[in-house]
Design a protein that fits this description.
Number of strands: 0
Strand content: under 5%
Length: 71
């Protein structure tokens, strides 16, 4: 309590800010997150399930077009 009133009189904050440390931590965290999201994105987007589904849907679409053209 006394330290706060002394700090206010001197016009200083009761703690020191360290903007360079905060900037480095923020940048480092973003780099780590960006490097871990790429393999996860690739795994989800290029999973064999999606390839099979894409092939199956294309096959169904071609079949329906052939049936509609033949009738």
């Amino acid at each position: 309590m006394i330290a706060e009133s002394v700090a206010k009189k001197q016009g200083k904050m009761p703690h020191r800010t360290q903007p360079m440390t905060a900037l480095l931590v923020f940048t480092g965290l973003n780099i780590v997150l960006a490097s871990t999201i790429t393999p996860i994105y690739d795994f989800v987007c290029f999973h064999p399930y999606w390839e099979r589904r894409r092939y199956q849907r294309r096959h169904e679409r071609e079949e329906s077009l052939l049936l509609s053209q033949s009738t």
